[in-house]
Design brief:
Largest sheet: 8 strands, mixed
CATH class of the largest domain: Alpha Beta
Shape: globular
Structural class: alpha/beta
Radius of gyration: 39 Å
Strand order of the largest sheet: 1-2-4-3-5-6-7-8
């Protein structure tokens, strides 16, 4: 009897195919039957007659099935029919025994297990589960938690004037890039520069023409408004000269070197632009104005990153940039990490900005720079909007991030491209730029503190703590005389409610005494009205004054606000108040009426005032002045409130919100504004649904419908819900892989929900808040896109490791499908469970004091130093709550790998079948065919020449990514040839080589997306006739391992088994690749290319190990088909396999 294999390799031994002894099915069955006849006969001796009869019937049935079954590998070429040897017909024909039928059955079972198409129930269930989860995530991303779109279309009459004299004398990129000046037709058609320079930088695949909407609005706004305003002219307001750059729509997000090239070109463009203002023939500036020394930068998408990079370049001229405005720019981290130069450039630029503001530098080179980042919000599906955050780069004194849904009179999110043409936003942006310019200064802008204050005033809601109250810096400008006939003095704590205006027909002041100190913490004054608040000079309907009984400084000129005021100041018994107008502190809120649908509907906004009582402690009264002369519709509600009444905190964590949600009931007697604080809601990975159930008013019709504001502080994001009955809540707070904030302090205060309701309704409001599980699933797409490029490499590496482990043990290189099935049953669950615990440990260690102490001692840094790479590992989050994402991504990626395997199988087998049919159709007579199959010595050196040419091109012209794409094609051809060889020979060795080639092809295909972006950039450069090679992608070692292995496998050489301890190194190398893909694959995806390259080098060394000398390298590269052992070399493509005659057993 034949000795059975050990129990540890039982599955592998069962899969080992028997060597055929003939070309026909019957001949192979005879040999297998003879090998197994002895144990079968020994077994049948102990059977009863009835059992033997049943076995005989079963064997007969199996024989009939065997004769009708087709082989799992159908032939594509006819079976050879050599002439019979003498005496063959004289041999007796053996009769089939029962044992032979059993052997045939066992052989068929082994062939079915060997087939790469075989799919177990567990593999099928895993694939279906992964597809269902993936489709759920994609469906949620496309259809759930979608913000409404409210952008209005913009119109312009553009004209672009190119500067042909900005040539190679100024820049080495003159033949690749171009500089233009924008002019608006019918408004400003003078091609001479005359205003303040603004340079626009397009983003990834962006066009220089994208500046049209903003530049046109700037020209029209100055022509129609500022040109007629004498005060604006006196403050240094002049037209904006918009310059724009044509980068030929380069894919800058994929290539770090392209980013640096653009930054270098733009610095040279700034020098050229500033020189234009010194040339009298090119400039039409007013005499007496200083020549510009700096340029305002406006960047879209990656153009904003280029603007920050310019200040780091060697050719940057100091102080030529002091104001940078970016739109949907990913400042915090690169959108993808497939290019080493892009990741290193980001690290260098962000480190430079952080160190400049950390105080470590003797002089801050960015001290006069103002940086404002504007994000589009949830509608931006190109980059996650939290990547636009500046909290890890600049302090609040130098910049901030704001969402378009927060900007007054915009109040809508917008996608990645709409932010350039949205009519509401371009109006706000142009006004913000004009707020900070001053042509009277050489820098062309106001001082930095004034710039940041102006940007906050224009772009933020006005309710943020960082927004300074302009009223507090003013001097009293109004005298108010308290007369009984025209003044109503209210009692302490009384709420002012006006349901109509002008009832008295004269001007009337409603004076509200401010509560006495000490103030309760959180006490505030709030006022809401549907009227526009006026300044002293305006003839409107309403004003709000903050007054004190103390007289203004002596000699100070004030405006007397006459309300029964005696011009001779002889009014006896009257009290005069020194007042300041509060119009500069008004915040605009979207109108919320019973017919309102969206915040951006375009109706006249509400006016809202809010003061902390501690900030107005120097005043004694607040006067609300009605100036309407006749009765008119309108309403005003003003009151004082404290924190106990107006603020509610929901102390529930993620688990409680996920399981039961939160319900808050607002009482009938409540302030006009109530704030609901939920500190634990700050993650971008969760989406929530909100329901507001309000009871009808009991006494009066409500003056306005409930209005809700969703707000987080970092970055500044607000969303408004008018006439609210609920809605979708999603925030852009803490996000995976984001660096921590630059300054120490609390990470975030969580979500705040502010409700404005009519307090006179005397009705309750019930608010329900719960997690939207399906809506949250879609949030994974934008934050974890790179995971679906890294985790599949983890799975493929583990499957390939299992294949080599079985091969080194049993000599059988199982198929990828069978190895995947075994990994799903054994190693994959264990590894992903271990990674889950590792992710939990990593997330908790970031908050551990002992860990910080150990890291500070090992790295030599201070414990207080901020580690900006703390979120680079695994899931990129310091919240252990999201541990479940590891098994979730594991299931999805295993399913993706299974589907990818079958896709490659279908494609390669289809191509192999087509090639076989073409070859049969074109095949000549047998003599000519055999003559064509003889080795051609002229082809032996062709591979050497091909490799040499490829290596030379990689070193000189083409990037190694192009060579890698070629190698993927060569490996696919090798795989197709292996299919054809296996189908013709039907030998186990040919199947082993095909399984080996197929698995290597799958691994290379998963690395291909990492190299594809740079390859696309290189091809794009060729289309614009830019032939300068990349300086960072010509490292021969980066692709040498792939070249050696692929060329070796193209000779149909099977890798030899390694039975020594060296096989553990192969195992460890593949496991290290899998571990890196899991831990750092998202942050540093490009390194996986280098790790697989090292693995290919090692496999090539194993190929050479059979000869015992590196001298065999020449034989492998010259096309020699000699293999490890003569018995393991598969036949070459197109060769015929002579039948092997088996010897009879004695």
């Amino acid at each position: 009897m034949r000795r059975r294999s050990s129990e540890g390799s039982e599955d592998e031994a069962r899969d080992r195919p028997h060597v055929s002894t003939g070309s026909s099915k019957k001949g192979r069955a005879e040999v297998m039957a003879r090998e197994s006849a002895q144990p079968v006969r020994a077994t049948t001796r102990h059977m009863s007659a009835q059992q033997q009869q049943q076995q005989r019937k079963a064997a007969t049935k199996e024989a009939s099935v065997l004769l009708t079954e087709k082989a799992p590998w159908p032939r594509t070429t006819p079976i050879p029919n050599p002439p019979l040897e003498p005496g063959t017909l004289d041999e007796p024909v053996p009769s089939k025994s029962r044992a032979e039928y059993v052997a045939d059955h066992l052989r068929k079972h082994a062939e079915r297990r060997r087939s790469p198409w075989r799919c177990s129930f567990l593999t099928l269930a895993t694939s279906i589960g992964a597809i269902v989860i993936l489709l759920t995530v994609v469906h949620s991303f496309l259809n759930r938690q979608q913000d409404p779109k409210g952008c209005a279309m913009s119109y312009m009459r553009p004209r672009f004037d190119r500067f042909p004299d900005f040539d190679t004398e100024h820049t080495r990129f003159a033949s690749k890039y171009s500089l233009y000046l924008y002019r608006e037709g019918g408004v400003d058609e003078d091609i001479r520069v005359k205003g303040i320079p603004v340079l626009f930088i397009p983003g990834n695949a962006g066009s220089y023409k994208q500046v049209r909407p903003i530049a046109a609005e700037a020209a029209v706004y100055f022509h129609d408004v500022l040109r007629q305003d004498g005060d604006a002219q006196g403050e240094g307001k002049r037209p904006l000269d918009f310059f724009t750059v044509d980068f030929n729509e380069e894919l800058i997000a994929f290539h770090g070197q392209t980013l640096l090239d653009q930054a270098e070109y733009l610095n040279e463009a700034i020098a050229y632009i500033l020189a234009l203002y010194h040339n009298p023939q090119r400039s039409a500036r007013e005499p007496g104005l200083p020549d510009p020394k700096s340029v305002i930068m406006l960047g879209h998408s990656m153009g904003g990153v280029v603007a920050r990079t310019m200040l780091r370049m060697p050719n940057y001229q100091e102080n030529t940039i002091n104001t940078i405005l970016t739109l949907s720019a990913p400042h915090a981290r690169p959108p993808i990490s497939f290019d080493a130069a892009m990741v290193s450039t980001y690290n260098d630029i962000n480190t430079y900005w952080r160190r400049s503001f950390s105080g470590s530098a003797a002089k801050n080179p960015l001290d006069d720079v103002t940086l404002v980042s504007v994000a589009g919000g949830g509608l931006d599906t190109m980059i996650p909007s939290e990547y636009t955050s500046l909290t890890s780069l600049v302090p609040d004194t130098h910049g901030f991030t704001v969402f378009t849904s927060s900007i007054p009179n915009v109040w809508t999110g917008m996608d990645h491209l709409a932010i350039m043409w949205c009519d509401q936003f371009r109006k706000a942006l142009v006004k913000a730029i004009y707020d900070v310019i001053d042509v009277r200064r050489p820098s062309q802008t106001r001082p930095r503190p004034e710039r940041i204050r102006a940007f906050r005033k224009r772009l933020l809601t006005g309710m943020e703590p960082v927004v300074e109250k302009g009223l507090l810096e003013q001097e009293p400008t109004t005298y108010l005389t308290l007369e009984h006939s025209s003044t109503g003095i209210m009692s302490h704590g009384e709420r002012l409610v006006l349901r109509s205006l002008g009832d008295t027909g004269t001007t009337k002041a409603h004076v509200m005494p401010i509560p006495a100190q000490p103030f309760v913490e959180g006490s505030k004054f709030t006022l809401l009205t549907d009227q526009k608040l006026d300044s002293e000079e305006d003839d409107g309907t309403m004003s709000v004054l903050l007054c004190s009984v103390f007289p203004p400084p002596a000699g100070f000129s004030v405006l007397s606000y006459a309300i029964n005021l005696d011009p001779s100041n002889s009014a006896g018994g009257s009290t005069r108040l020194a007042c300041k107008n509060a119009v500069s502190d008004v915040s605009l809120l979207p109108a919320s009426n019973k017919d309102s649908v969206n915040a951006f509907d375009g109706t006249h906004p509400f006016s809202y005032l809010q003061y902390e009582l501690s900030s107005i402690a120097d005043y004694q009264f607040i006067a609300v002045v009605e100036k309407a002369k006749e009765r008119m519709p309108g309403w005003v509600i003003a009151e004082f409130s404290n924190a106990a009444e107006s603020s509610i905190k929901v102390s529930k964590g993620h688990h409680q919100l996920l399981l039961s949600g939160a319900t808050v009931r607002l009482p009938a007697k409540r302030p006009m504004m109530t704030e609901l604080k939920i500190p634990e809601v700050h993650s971008t990975l969760f989406a929530y649904s909100l329901e507001v159930d309000r009871k009808p008013c009991r006494k009066h019709e409500e003056s306005f419908a409930p209005l809700m504001r969703q707000y987080i502080a970092e970055p500044y994001e607000s969303k408004y819900f008018v006439n609210t009955k609920g809605g979708n809540i999603n925030v852009h707070g803490l996000s995976p892989y984001m660096p921590p904030r630059l300054s120490a302090g609390p990470v975030t205060e969580g979500l705040s929900l502010q409700f404005w309701t009519d307090p006179t309704c005397n009705s309750t409001v019930e608010i329900s808040f719960k997690v939207d599980v399906l809506g949250s699933a879609g949030k994974l797409v934008m934050r974890y896109r790179t995971v679906f490029a890294a985790f599949p490499i983890l799975v493929v590496a583990l499957v390939l490791r299992k294949q080599f482990k079985v091969y080194d043990t049993t000599g059988v290189f199982i198929s990828f499908t069978q190895s995947m099935d075994q990994c799903i049953r054994t190693s994959l669950p264990a590894i992903f469970i271990a990674l889950t615990f590792f992710a939990i440990a990593v997330s908790k260690s970031s908050h551990n004091l002992w860990t910080r102490h150990w890291l500070s001692k090992s790295t030599g840094t201070s414990e207080q130093a901020i580690d900006f790479t703390v979120n680079d590992l695994m899931l990129g989050t310091s919240d252990p709550f999201f541990w479940f994402l590891v098994p979730l991504f594991a299931i999805i990626c295993v399913g993706i790998c299974i589907v990818m395997n079958y896709v490659v199988l279908v494609l390669t087998h289809t191509i192999a079948l087509g090639v076989a049919k073409v070859l049969r159709w074109a095949q000549g007579p047998p003599e000519e065919s055999r003559r064509a199959q003889l080795p051609n010595t002229g082809l032996l050196n062709r591979r050497n020449l091909t490799i040499a040419v490829l290596l030379l091109l990689v070193v000189t012209i083409i990037p190694y990514q192009f060579a890698y794409a070629v190698l993927c094609l060569v490996q696919a051809v090798t795989c197709i040839r292996a299919i054809k060889t296996a189908q013709e020979s039907q030998t186990p060795q040919s199947y082993h080589f095909y399984n080996y080639a197929h698995s290597v092809l799958l691994l290379m295909l998963w690395i291909l997306p990492i190299n594809a972006p740079v390859l696309v950039v290189w091809i794009h450069n060729l289309t614009v006739h830019w032939l300068t090679p990349f300086s960072t992608h010509h490292n021969l070692l980066s692709v040498l391992g792939y070249i050696l292995l692929v060329e070796t496998m193209s000779t149909n050489n099977m890798i030899p088994r390694v039975t020594s301890r060296v096989r553990y190194f192969t195992n460890t190398l593949m496991f290290a690749l899998a571990l890196y893909a899991a831990v750092y694959g998202v942050t540093y995806a490009y390194r996986m290319h280098y790790l697989v390259n090292a693995l290919c080098c090692w496999l090539f060394v194993i190929h050479l190990s059979n000869s015992g000398s590196l001298a065999s390298l020449a034989r492998h590269l010259s096309g020699s088909s000699s293999s490890v052992t003569p018995s393991t070399a598969p036949p070459a493509l197109g060769s015929t396999v002579p039948p092997v005659r088996g010897k009879k057993r004695p």
